[in-house]
Amino acid sequence: MQDLRACRGASLFYGVCFALGGILVILTLRNAVPLVSGLITGTLLIGPLFAIGLYELSRQCERKEKPALRPSLLAWRGPLSAVAVYSFIVIIIYLVWARAGLVVFALFYDGGMPTLSSLLTMLLRFNNPSFLIAYFLVGGFFATLVFSVSVVSIPLMLDRDQDAITSMIASFLALARNPLVLLLWGFLITLLIAFGILLGYLGLIVTGPLVGHATWHAFRALIAPLSDAEIALITD
What we know:
By secondary structure, the protein is mainly α.
């Protein structure tokens, strides 16, 4: 919250982008509910990639610099190759998850192709428990997979110029060594993003930047700081 207040307009710019992106998805694919549901839940999978600008804003605050939007928009250029490899891996997982979501709809959803209103009604009334259980189990598997390799991946690439594979292994080890805390953290991320989505995506204007800034501080809490010699080596 301190970073959000310090960065103000720059942080909210990213929040507005998240909200507009979600609204655009809903408007474009409102008649293809299986695709919409996959894209909505897939937000959690690719969120760390889109939040790199927020990590840069938090880093600026950490360095006592004046937060600036333009450098944050270009933050991906530093670890470009690592971010590209990470993006490729996560997008492949995302596409597989979207396909798996369609299969779950085909196998477990009763009543033909759903509309957005009928899907929401089913969720609220719990009319089709087998579909809901299958959908959330499949979604939970992919979400856990991506979460395990992305907890600190992008911040690590941004801050220390690490390659994608090393960063993803570091994220997995962080989760393995702190499972309860990080599973709670993942639950809180899901809760905040879901809350933003349920408010017609407008809630993401605040909850999106909040999660982004918090992720940077989680990275700082999880990964040991560099020594002066290591900092000098990276700088050189």
